[in-house]
Amino acid sequence: MVIHTRNKRIKERGSLMAEIMVALAILMVVVLPVAYSFHQEHRLMHSYYTRAAAMEIVDGEMEVLMAGEWHNFAPGTHPYTVNAQSAANLPPGQFTLTLTTNKVRLQWQPGLKDYGGPVVREGVIR
What is the count of structural domains for the chain? Predict the structure, then answer.
């Protein structure tokens, strides 16, 4: 009788272990895709934030350029430095000013991939 009870306990332990393994497998099948989607959404939100910050800076600098600041530059392409404090929140990248006879073009190009893409504004010189 002792042997019979011992075998029954071993079988119960085995079935409990199998149930735990199935529960863990189900949990992993559900949790991993959700965690991955949260990670992707975080990267997307960071990209949107970076793009919005760059747009705000480029728009403000473009207003200054169109107000007459473009006179200080010769025609051609120049690196452009910004004085906005929010530029510290941007990832590495470059602001570029392109001046032609009738257009001013200001562009921010991120140095890294997946950071919102380039932001470009153009204005017509009168």
Answer: 1
Chain segment 21-80, per-residue pLDDT in tens: 999 999 888 888 888 899 999 999 999 999 999 999 999 999 999 999 999 999 999 999
Question: Which pLDDT band holds residue 6 (cuts at 50, 70, 90)?
Answer: low
Which one, of 60, 125, 49, 43, lies nearest residue 95 by Cα?
60
The alpha-helical segments, DSSP class H, found in the chain are 2-66
CB 108 within 8 A of CB 50: no
Domain that holds residue 98: 2-124
Task: State phi, psi for 8 to the nearest 5 degrees.
Answer: -65, -40
